Structure of Lipoprotein:
Amino acid sequence: MRRIFVLLTLLLGLAACGSAESVWAPDEAVERARFSTSGPPTLTLFTVINERSGNGGHAALMVSAPSERVLFDPAGSFHHPRLPERNDVVFGMTDPAVDFYIDYHSRTTWRVVRQDLVVPAAVAEQALRAVQEYGAVPKAFCANSISTVLRGLPGFEGFKVSMFPENVQAEFAQYQGVVRREYHDMDPDNNGEILARGI
């Protein structure tokens, strides 16, 4: 019951706040940052979990397609000057950038759960198009937008759409082949001052 009340409060607050904030990096910045990996095509779900309550505070989806690897960070606060963003899609997600993203969110009060799932190349490319076409996401709709994207992919037609990151995490975990890792950090509860080398 409490979760329903919280959700209704969030939705009412969003109605008062209006639409999501649109960000559009210049073409040259995006082209300069583009990155692809030699690894298999993969969908990676990041879920930021409160250490005290176990509730999800944020979710993001990294798409490693043969053509490019990007991070769909809907309504996220993550930012790096060398990682251009277009409407919640972050470009230039090299391995150090991924490590930085995890470190940015992991601290004494939050842990990060990473779930990797290798998918067919065509599915990864479709996911890449889907996140770039989704548009800017309003606050508190991170899980909703990610689960909506996933549900639209071949093989994920039955994926349940949810407003709660921990529900999306549990749903993603049901797919065969998911590899799960957790990241815990003793950094203070402040993600504003983090040194990022090699990006």
Notes: The longest helix spans residues 2-17. Confidence is low (pLDDT under 50) at residues 4-18. Strands lie at 42-50, 56-64, 69-72, 85-86, 89-90, 110-118, 179-183. Helices lie at 2-17, 27-33, 95-105, 121-134, 142-151, 165-173.
